[in-house]
Amino acid sequence: MAERDWDEIAEGVFRKRFEPCDVTVTAVLGSDGVAVVDTRCSLAEAREIKAQLGRLTSAPVRWVVNTHAHFDHCWGNAEFVAPRLTPSARIWGHASVPARLDPQDPEVREWVARLAAEGPQWAERMAELELRAPAELVHDQASIDLGDRSLELRFLGRGHTDGDLWILVDAGSTRVVLAGDLVEQSGPPAFGPDSFPLEWADTLDRAMALIGLGTLVVPGHGAVVDAAFVREQRDAIASVAQEIRRLHAAGVPVESAAQEGAWAIEAKALGSAIERGYFALA
User: Fold this and answer.
1) How far is CA 110 from CA 45, 79, 105, in A?
2) Mean pLDDT, to the nearest integer, of 169-197?
3) pLDDT, tens digit, 9 for 90 and up, residues 223-251
4) Are 23 and 40 a contacting pair, CB within 8 Å?
5) What are the CA-CA distances from residue 235 to residues 44, 120, 135, 232, 273 (Å)?
6) Residue 242 near residue 234 (C-beta atoms within 8 A)
7) How far apart are CA 27 and CA 49, in angstroms?
């Protein structure tokens, strides 16, 4: 019997929200094994996924998919390859992801140090960290055959990052899409320092063309949503982009834009959207 805290949203499709970061992990059970989508922040957290999946099913984890390169979605990858898992799962991600998982990259080293400083538990997790990049790379689209069903991996354009995958799950009569952080439910869209606020809405337009009104959309963080929610969030992101363009064209300095703009999302939640948008328009 399935663990109570894993929600079976369609036949053989289980999802669970994990702390820290309220990140969603999805497990898709096929006749040839299990595909795990996103692996959390550390090896310790990925071990927790493995242990729980072992109580959910006796089938082996044969595939891992990273929705994008942020630490809370893929720093547990190494727990799913030898010697921690044999045979190793095949790890899939967008072609941009491996460069973001280079342990010598200054941004990665900065993140490791920042997290280690959060406290003893984080320090312990960062001390054993081993980054493992996807070897199966997606440029535009790819398919993973799970035996009796498939996952369709689509790169539809830049948005939350430059490597967000939109994943369509073959779930019989129920249409399921795993959106990663292209869609956020537990908070506003996350405009980080590697986001593309002027392109994000167009990417969601292409994504919306692939789903119907009855589709279940699983965000990277938060509850399952529907197509109407995605459309509403797309419109808010488009409004942010339009306001960035208006302010830039009017000559409003970037440091004043948050105060002078009319924002569809609270200015304090815009993150790096304005700076990234102005940089793109320069």
Assistant:
1) 20, 22, 9
2) 97
3) 999 999 999 999 999 999 999 999 999 99
4) yes
5) 38, 42, 35, 5, 15
6) no
7) 10
Instruction: With both helix axes pointing from N to C terminus, report the angle between 120-127 and 106-116 in degrees, rounded to the nearest 10.
Output: 140
DSSP annotation of 177: E
Residue 63 β-bridge partners: 35, 90
Give me the helix-helix angle, 273-281 and 227-249, nearest 10°. 60
Q: pLDDT tens digits, residue range 18-32? A: 999 999 999 999 999
Q: Are 134 and 96 in contact (CB under 8 A)?
A: no
pTM of the model: 0.97
CA atoms of 198 and 210, how far apart (whole Å): 21
Amino acid at site 58: S
* Integer CA distances (angstroms), 33 to 58, 120, 225, 266, in order: 9, 36, 27, 43
Assigned token pair, 33: 């094994």
Query: Are the C-beta atoms of residues 73 and 64 closer than 8 Å to each other?
Result: no
- Domains of the chain and CATH, by start: 7-281 (3.60.15.10)
- 134: Cβ contacts below 8 Å, ≥ 6 apart: 64, 66, 77, 91, 92, 93, 94, 97, 98
* Token representation of residue 178: 């795993």
Percent composition of the chain: helix, strand, coil (DSSP 3-state, to 5): 35, 25, 45
Q: Which residue has the tokens 């959390």?
A: 40
Asked if 143 contacts 194 with a C-beta cutoff of 8 angstroms, the reply is: no
DSSP code for 17: E
Closest CA to 204 of 163, 175, 235: 235
Run of H or E residues at 94: strand 90-94
What confidence category does residue 212 fall into, taking pLDDT thresholds of 50, 70 and 90?
confident
**Nearest CA among 155, 161, 156 for reference residue 194:** 161
Neighbours of 48 (CB within 10 A): 16
